[in-house]
Design goal:
The structure holds 2 protein chains of 2 kinds. By secondary structure, chain A is an alpha+beta fold. Chain A has 5 helices and 4 strands. Chain A has a 4-stranded mixed beta sheet. In chain A, helix 3 (about 90-105) packs across helix 4. Chain B has helices at about 5-25, 55-70, 95-100, 145-160, and strands at about 45-50, 75, 105-110, 115-125, 130-135, 170-175, 180-185, 190, 200-205, 210-215, 220-225, 235, 245-250, 255-260, 265-270, 275-280, 290-295, 300-305, 315-320, 325, 340-345, 350-355, 360-365, 370-375, 380-385, 390-395, 405-410, 415, 425-430. In chain B, the strands form 7 sheets. In chain B, strands 2-1-3-4-5 form a 5-stranded mixed beta sheet, sandwiched between helices. In chain B, strands 8-7-6-29 form a 4-stranded antiparallel beta sheet, with no helix packed on it. A 4-stranded antiparallel beta sheet of chain B has the order 9-10-11-12, with no helix packed on it. The chains are: A alpha+beta, B mainly beta. At the A-B interface, helix 4 and strand 3 of A face strand 13 and strand 14 of B.
Chain lengths: ~190, ~450
């Protein structure tokens, strides 16, 4: 059991990184408008940019810097969390992600999110809609317990209707058992907590 | 008739008898190895021959197949090229000795009669016509022709067995999230929703004139009532918010029971759909899930799914929400998840699916004894729905490689494939439909 278990645990983490790097294809995300700044950028935002025409790093345009921070924070808010089979408990390895979301929402009072719960294709189609609701509610409850006002968080469920991975294997199922976080308002300019 | 001609016809009849099950299926392939034979005893069921004749061959083929699909007879289907005319010119007297030798108990004679057909049921054993009735049929090119013939088939089944067949009925189902219907014999597939609309949980009203379903949008879902012809869409009161799923009509058509899924879990409600008012909450799950209500035919009880003990299992309550208790027994931590209950039309059984080694299989619960019986074992088999005769179930199976609808006769275990396109799911079988209704997709 343990090898399979670790494989299941690792797969979503790997995927999560991929997703954090811009793999998310949320259809109607109110894209952070101000700048076409590189979305959730490469994990090297603090490097002394080897950019060709900007020789002096400290002279970065403040607006561009703010946009970069906002984009990075939006990326953190949008990072998915994952669930064990037929479970809606927040996994211990996802708590840090939710803590971070709570912190970001805490200092950015206008930020509102929609959490959508998803299930893998196993299990009954209609039961999975209920399961997705529970998964979305679990993340909301966690954030509310961290002090975020419940009215700022909407929950919906897609059951198994919107798989992220089309495969019929453990890795795909693990990736599909998830909560997605979509910013619905207040994401224009964010402060770092 | 000479004895030479007699024996020649007899041989032809026997040959046809052997090939009849295949020959009778013109729109569906007979899948190999599907007669799993739970208690299949050939020869015990009465043999019925559909007599050849002039004209309306399509009606004879449809009736022969419907009788075969009823699983109540051994059907001897004579092909259109059979030149034997065993019916005397007078139309009444049949060579009963011949058919008795063949082993036929009944002979069904269809004779063109103006814009319709006269059907005679010959009782071979008694040597007499038992029933004779004229049916009006629409022209053969009419969309309702096949369905009108199905209704003839159901009458013939009733004449012989005392209870009608289930041929004049339809199954709603989804391909992805688009709503379709199919006739009981696999014909007449038609889309009922547009390509942009997302539909879940379709179900029939008891009179077959309306359907209800979840209109799914953005992770939420309202419940929509609509006429089978397409128009008259109304949203059930109070279901415009949250995610409302698994609607089920009460037998009198007055109530719609459904599950609302939200942050406090999933619970079952009813709404008065005649007056579009009066939402009542039946379960208080406190973060457990309660869904998939299904009314007993007397309207007094509702079976449903609940996760109150952990994994989803089948429970029952009074129609007002009181007296909630376990319905299908399970061993805690051992028995797999159980979902998708549907109460049989005769009230004696509840079909559902239960995971065996994490693979769903179709089960039937005998309500009186609370005993369950597993009906399937090949591949994933889920979401059973009762035919109007209460002895056939349609369900979703991936045994052919992708999810399709199949039909099983719970008495003989005989299985046939009903749909062949896409990935079909969430079937809902109508009761017998009184009038064919044209489609307006």
């Amino acid at each position: 059991m343990s090898p399979a278990f670790t494989r299941v645990m690792v797969a979503p983490l790997a995927l999560l990184l991929v997703v954090a790097c811009g793999g998310k294809k949320a259809p109607e995300q109110p894209a952070p408008q101000p700048q076409p700044a590189p979305q959730p950028t490469q994990p090297a935002p603090t490097q002394p940019a080897p950019a060709p025409a900007t020789p002096a790093p400290p002279a970065e345009d403040p607006a561009a810097a703010a946009a970069r921070v906002t984009a990075a924070l939006l990326g953190e808010v949008a990072t998915m969390i994952h669930f064990d089979f037929d479970q809606s408990d927040i996994r211990s390895d996802d708590r840090a992600l939710l803590d971070r979301k709570a912190a970001i929402m805490g200092v950015n009072g206008g930020l509102r999110v929609r959490i959508s719960g998803h299930a893998d294709e196993r299990g009954s189609d209609e039961y999975n809609l209920a399961l997705g609701s529970r998964r979305a509610a679990a993340a909301k409850t966690y954030l509310v317990n961290k002090g975020i006002d419940a009215g700022r968080i909407e929950t919906v469920s897609f059951g198994e209707e919107r798989p992220l991975e089309p495969g019929h294997d453990e890795a795909s199922w693990a990736a599909n058992r998830r909560d997605e976080f979509e910013v619905t308002a207040g994401g224009q300019s964010l402060r770092n907590p | 008739m000479s004895s030479r001609g007699f024996s020649g016809w007899l041989l032809a009849g026997v040959a046809l008898l052997l090939t009849a099950p295949l020959a009778a299926q013109d729109t569906t392939q007979a899948p190999e190895g599907v007669r799993i034979g739970i208690e299949y005893r050939p020869g015990v069921r009465p043999s019925v021959v559909v007599l050849p004749g002039v004209g309306i061959d399509s009606a004879r083929a449809i009736v022969a197949r419907d009788l075969d699909y009823s699983d109540r007879f051994e059907v001897i289907a004579l092909g259109p090229r059979d030149t034997v005319a065993p019916v005397n010119p007078g139309g009444r007297a049949l060579d009963y000795v011949l058919f008795r030798t063949l082993g036929a108990a009944y002979a069904v004679e269809l004779a063109p009669d103006g814009p319709g057909v006269t059907v005679r049921l010959h009782d071979i054993t008694a040597g007499a016509v038992r029933r004779e009735q004229r049916f009006t049929l629409p022209p053969q090119f009419d969309l309702n022709y096949r369905f009108a013939v199905h209704r003839v088939s159901d009458e013939v089944v009733r004449w012989i067995t005392g209870t009608p067949g289930y041929a004049a009925s339809r199954v709603l189902f989804l391909i992805d999230r688009r709503l379709y219907r199919v006739d009981s014999d696999g014909g007449g597939v038609a889309a009922l929703s547009g390509p942009g609309e997302e539909v879940l949980s379709p179900t029939w009203s008891p009179d077959g004139k309306r359907i209800a379903y979840t209109r799914f949008a953005g992770g939420k879902g309202s419940l929509v009532l609509q006429g089978v012809a397409g128009g008259d869409k109304t949203t059930v009161t109070g279901t415009g918010v949250a995610l409302n799923i698994t609607p089920a009509f009460s037998p009198d058509g007055r109530l719609l029971a459904y599950a609302r899924s939200g942050e406090d879990g999933t619970d079952i409600f009813t709404a008065d759909i005649n007056q579009n008012c009066c939402v009542q909450r039946l379960t208080v799950g406190r973060y457990s899930d309660n869904l998939s209500p299904t009314f007993a035919p007397d309207g007094r009880r509702i079976a449903f799914v609940s996760t109150r003990a952990g994994a989803p299992q089948i429970y029952v309550m009074a129609a007002d929400g009181t007296d909630q208790e376990l319905l299908a027994p399970f061993d805690y931590g051992v028995t797999g998840s159980s979902n998708a209950p549907e109460w049989s039309p005769d009230g004696a059984s509840v079909a559902f699916h239960r995971e065996v080694n994490r693979v769903p299989q179709v089960f039937v619960l005998d309500v009186a004894s609370r005993r369950v019986r597993q009906l399937t074992s090949s591949g994933r088999n889920e979401d059973p729905t009762w035919a109007p005769d209460g002895r056939h179930l349609a369900f979703v199976s991936d045994r052919s490689g992708r999810r399709q609808l199949w039909v099983i006769d719970i008495v003989t275990g005989r299985i046939r494939q009903l749909t062949f396109e896409g990935q079909a799911r969430l079937p809902a079988w109508s009761r017998r439909l009184a009038d064919p209704v044209p489609t307006q997709p």
